[in-house]
Amino acid sequence: MERIPIRHLSSTQAEPDLFGNFGIRKIVDLLDGKDMLQELHRHDFFYILVIENGKGQHEIDFRSYPITDHTVFFMRPGQVHQIELNAGSTGYLIHFRDEFYLPHDQHAGQLLRKLSQLNHYGLNADQFPKLMRVLLAVFEEYTDKQECYQEVIKANMGIFFIELLRAQQHNPADQVSLYNQEGLEKFLSLLERHVFSHKQVAEYAQMLNLSTYQLNAIAKTTLGKTCSELINEYLILEAKRHLLATSNQVNQIAYSLGYEDVSYFIRFFKKYTGHSPEAFRQNFR
Question: Global pTM?
Answer without folding.
Answer: 0.72
